Amino acid sequence: MIESALIILSQAVAALLVSPFIVGLIRKVKARLQCRRGAGVLQPYYDLLKLFRKDVVVSTNTSWIFTATPYILFASTLTASLLVPIFLSKVPINFAGDVIAVVYLLALGTFFLILAGLDAGSAFGGMGSSREAIVASLTEPAMILSIFAVGLTAGSTNLSTIVHKTALLQDIVTDPPPHLMAFVALFIVTLAETGRVPVDNPATHLELTMIHEAMVLEYSGRYLALVEWASALKLLLFLTLLSNIFAPWGIATEAEPSWMALGVLVWLAKVSGLAVVIGVIESMFAKLRLFRVTDLLGVAFILSLLAVVFFYILRV
Amino acid sequence: MGLALIVLIAAPLVAGLSSLGVRTRRSMEGLQCAHAVVLLAAMSVVVMNVAEGSVITVGILLRADALSAFMDLMLAFVGATGLLYALGYMGEEVIRGHVLHRRYKRFFCLFNLYLFAMLLAANVDNIAMMWIAIEGSTLSAALLIGFEKTKAALEAGWKYIILSFVGIALALFGTVLVYYASEHVLGVSMEALRWEELYRVASDLNPTALKLAFVFVLIGYGTKAGVAPMHTWLPDAHGEAPTPVSAMLSGLMLNLALYAVLRFKSIVDRTVGVDFTGPILLVLGLLSITIAAIFLLVQRDYKRLFAYSSIEHVGIALVGFGVGGPIGIFGGLFHMLNHALAKSTAFYAAGMVLLRRGHKAIERVTGLVRQMPLVGGSMMLATLALAGMPPFGLFVSEVLIATEAYGQRPWVAYVFLCLLAVAFATLLYQVSRMAMGEPVEEDIPVTDRTRRFTTSALVANLAAMGYAGTHMPGFLRDLFIPMTRFFGVIVEIP
Amino acid sequence: MGAIHPDIASQMVDLCAALLLLTCFAIIAQRRLSACVDLFALQSAFLAVTAALVAFLTGIHHIYIAALLTVIIKVIVIPRILKKVIERLNVTRELVLNVNIPPSLLICGALVILAFYITQPIISLGFLLTKDSLAIALAIVLIGFFTMIARKKAVTQVVGFLVMENGLFLGATAAAYGMPLIVELGVFFDVLVAGLIIGIFTHRLQDTFDSVDTSKLTELKE
């Protein structure tokens, strides 16, 4: 009992502590590729600390949704990240939810964020919300299907089961083509959901190009800190999904401290690697125009659909 | 004997490469005439030897059995007359200033390479090498079709390229599938690609793989043969290419593609029985004839008219092969030979009309027989042959095919004859409009030198057409009997 | 070859084949012509890796030569020619497609399923090393064919044709263990010449029609 509680706590702490680092790492990579020195990798931590100390400015036109959303967003994202195996394959609260729960917890956060963007009544917020709604509705099927594709091979939609079985290579069917397709699909979904180039530029504040930034434009102080932390957490969650579902080797399969420590290190290495890749991709590509984003997400959807279909065809 | 085969295949290659270094038209004419003579001589040796019953082989690469020798006969003869005609036609274009000498050389180089590729494809003992050779002929034909740099020619060339390349790729897939199947029996080696070995182990090959392979091969090589519905490149290509090229395409390329399909059919028939390939070929054949008959009605360009007629005749040959049986197979093969002769004659005549009238519109051409007796007369005779009139050979083959079809499924014979009647009427109507009557337009004169070549080509073709229709020379009969045996039927020809 | 478990070997080849299929989808989803050509070069590189893998695992050494030729001709030479054509033609992207991207993606997915369905009966014939490769090869051929139909610009049609050839090479190598060397050489030569001829024609098309939009080739009708 105590052990499970400790594991849950350490998982939450790990996720919270590492997520700003990942954001900082991506920014550093982009800066280096642009031949600048860039801010330090730890800069996001300082930004969060600064934001927590500042005053909050809230528009008088907003309702309770505006002030509640940062907390809801933060809480749902944190809960979702507790369901995802980070350094231990069988997370203690995995009985509480599987991949569908994760997807819809994240969707809950996104939903409230969309509402909050509309709440302040500003043009930017409304615009950002409508764009975010388009992207979210297109990424949802792709995300579910791609995890399903892997889940089919493991025989369950429970993330812990999937990761545990894949890590031990027991009882599962291995097939490169569907896994590869599901990986690419989930990667594209990651870029879309976390607001990275080529779907959305996280560093811009131009009206023409904002999606996520537009929704959070009205926030300040601790609200902004929570929202930013939540989006960093979401990024970390996706990267963890990518690395631990498709290549979980190195993860601890039993709750032994030494294995778990190793698991943490391996996980850090994997998500950092993926963060570097994202940084490189962000530097290589230009942001897509909004109606071209549907093409990209269409590719992701088709790939994940094919991955699922392949599973059945290859069994024939 | 092997030497004759090598000479037959190598001659066009040598001639093609040498024609790049030729300085004057006179020396080119000499080169190509010598080339034609060598072709005919080598072909006669090969055909005579094979007719006596032997199969000529050169190592594991070349193999001339009855079917190959039959193709050699067609290729060499029509190729030789085609060379003569091309000398005359292109010479005239050079004199008129339409074609520079540099391009004249290139034309003949490509023309010769085209013949080389076709001869190689007919005689090689390797399904993949056959593919490579046919692809080679496609490439040279593509450059030849787009030779005149007009908009229409480019469009025709582009359509040809796209459709042919796709077809060829599908045919390669079919070839790979056959190799896939034969590897299991013959091992991973060159042996698994040889026709001879494939014939030997045909019954051991996997039926499903071969059925699938045949479908791909039929679509692929069928595109090259002008089988509907993959025929859309054909009218454009024939219409816009220089006329000697149109003659070669209709007379030789289509038959070569049919040869490739036939080779695969003979293997597949031994593995899965006749009932698989027969109906498919029958349906496609009837479809081709239907489409050709419909479009013949609306043609206003006489080269396109003859092109659609080619589609019709390819359809007839396919019906013959699809119906099967000794008479059907013989009918189809005989049809291929006679069509090659008649169609090339028609195109030679058409080319002369183009040179002397300067346009390709049917309604503006009249009085050919009066103005240019030989050209008009030969066009009329060729059209009569193509329409299926006796005493030409096409009549014989069509009757035989109809008879065999009637014996198996009467409705096929009825449809077949109806369609042929439509095509007969249309073709005769259109061409007699051109040939008969009073000449209205001015005649653009053609030099004597040109006339010498084109006339000799026309006369040679006409003679062969008449001869093949009325007689069955001994060597031809001796070729037909083993050929039909390929398809599992024995035939006695009186 | 004995050092690697046959199951893993087959999976490695499958992985490479899957990468090839992925690049096919990427090509179909592209509008920029130079991106299509780059993706084709990437696909050919994957193809060469697949061929080298097959050569390593089966010990048939002449497949190495085929892999090397693939790299030289399809990764370096032909993409260069195509890039030059694109430069000279000054076209960069397809604005109007015959079939838009989302439907064409769906159709490609359907083609993949179709290819698997068609080759099911004969996959069992295959050598133990490569089960799905024949199906993926046919899928790539069909997708390449579809690319030729779905696009208007001549350059993209050419890329579609070359993708078909890649699929054929995959089929011949992975499923049939590669044809004898002389045959492979002949096929390569043919593909190279075909590429050159298409380059020539595209050039002439541009000169004569002032565009390489093949929907403008409408003079010859019936």
Query: Which bin fits the share of residues in helices of chain B?
Result: over 70%
Proportion of β residues of chain B? under 5%
Helical proportion of chain C, percent range:
over 70%
Largest interface: pair, residues per side: B-C, 51 and 47 residues
Summarize the structure.
The complex is a heterotrimer of chains A (316), B (494) and C (222). Chain A is mainly alpha-helical. Chain A has helices at 2-33, 43-53, 64-83, 99-119, 123-154, 159-168, 176-193, 212-215, 221-246, 257-284, 290-315.
Features:
heterotrimer; A: 316 residues; mainly alpha; 11 helices; 0% strand; B: 494 residues; two-stranded antiparallel sheet; 19 helices; 80% helix; 1% strand; globular
Characterization of this structure:
The complex is a heterotrimer of chains A (316), B (494) and C (222). Chain A has one domain (2-315). Chain A contains eleven helices and no strands. By secondary structure, chain A is an all-alpha fold. Chain B has helices at 2-19, 25-51, 66-96, 101-123, 127-145, 151-186, 195-201, 207-225, 233-240, 243-272, 274-296, 302-323, 325-357, 368-371, 373-387, 393-408, 410-435, 448-470, 474-486; strands at 56-58, 62-64. Chain B has a two-stranded antiparallel ribbon. With 494 residues, chain B is an all-alpha fold. Chain B is globular and about 65 Å long. In chain B, 80% of the residues lie in helices and 1% in strands. Chain B has one domain (2-486). Chain B contains 19 helices and two strands. Chain B starts with a helix and ends in an 8-residue tail after the last helix. The longest helix of chain C is centred in the last third of the chain and has 29 residues, at 181-209. Chain C is built from seven helices and no strands. In chain C, helix 1 runs antiparallel to helix 2 (33-58) and helix 3 (62-89) runs parallel beside helix 7 (181-209). The mean pLDDT of chain C is 80. With 222 residues, chain C is an all-alpha fold. Chain C has helices at 6-28, 33-58, 62-89, 101-123, 133-150, 154-175, 181-209. Chain C has one domain (6-214). Chains in contact: A-C, B-C. At the B-C interface, helix 5, helix 6, helix 8 and helix 9 of B face helix 4, helix 5, helix 6 and helix 7 of C.
